[in-house]
Amino acid sequence: MYGAERQQLLAQQARSNGRLDVTAASEEFGVAPETIRRDLAALERQGLIRRVYGGAVLLERLDFEPGVNQRDRTRADEKDRIARAALDLVPQRGTVLLDAGTTTGRLAALLPQGSELTIVTNSLPAASQLAGRNHANLHVLGGRVRGTTLATVESWALEVLAGLTVDVGFFGTNGFSAARGCTTPDTAESAVKSAMIRACRRRVLLSDHSKYGDDQFARFAALEEIDVLVTDDGLDEQAVAELNEAEIDVVLA
């Protein structure tokens, strides 16, 4: 197959799926990963895609944010492993903050019954899971509910967060990188996440490896503000080294 033909097929896949994975494309076309990376560079020069860690995303979909159900089905196995690993970082007692997100939602489901925790969240799905727990002291942040993420945002949430001090916070993200920190497409959600970061003594980021290098519109935390990253073992050694330079503890689930 000629390079131009392969690039045309890659462009079609990007339009269908919204993103491309270097490893998967390499196996599908029977070529080296370096060949796929050169193809992606050519497509990027044509203005069709933007290269990110491990692959590329379609430029037309950079502002597209999938809903909760779609995101929950994406990399579900990795998210389950990340949530189980993050459970070791939950204190036996004290205060915990759960940011909105499908991986933090999995962590909420794993919190042990009868734990002596005060839990703060802006996630309606997480709150729904925890509301029936007998010993859970649950606080739900108010505000406007974003239909895309089912997270509460804006001034009501910000005002409450300004007066809180939380032992450990668990955060989701749409993208993160050594260069740009933790990012999300929506400015209202970014503002609440930033306020949550400031409210927590210890901050744990939960994210699968595919989000590394996929920088979004609004930054809510610099990497130096994150204490621990819990991700899956798909994150390569170079990325781990870059994160360690920022003095982040990296846990590979």
UniProtKB/TrEMBL annotation:
Keywords: DNA-binding, Repressor, Transcription, Transcription regulation. Signal peptide: none annotated. SMART domains: DeoRC, HTH_DEOR. It comes from the Bacteria. GO terms for molecular function: DNA binding. Residues 3-58 form the HTH deoR-type domain. Repressor of the lactose catabolism operon. Galactose-6-phosphate is the inducer. This is Lactose phosphotransferase system repressor. It comes from Saccharopolyspora griseoalba.
